[in-house]
């Protein structure tokens, strides 16, 4: 009985996941998606903080001009 419920829930999750797939962007929607507020890097302070956290955690530098090691002391 328990295995039957797990299989049913897994099948249900797969069906729901397939229904929420990607959609094509219509030509009249591209202006909205290309707006400045839709950019992930519109806030320079947030972007700098994300870079600092990423490069401190990865113990690597390069690619975006942020230096330092894994100690988080850049």
Separation, N- and C-terminal Cα atoms = 56 Å
> Percent of residues in beta strands?
under 5%
Tell me the number of strands. Answer: 0
* SSE class: mainly alpha
Mean pLDDT across all residues, rounded? Answer: 77
Q: Please trace the helix and strand order, writing H or E for each element.
A: HHH
Low-confidence parts lasting 5 or more residues at pLDDT below 50? Answer: none
Task: Summarize the entry for a quick read.
With 74 residues, this protein is mainly α.
Walk me through the structure.
There is one protein chain. By secondary structure, the chain is mainly alpha-helical. It is built from three helices and no strands. The protein is flat and about 55 Å long. It starts with a helix and ends in a 16-residue tail after the last helix. The mean pLDDT is 77.
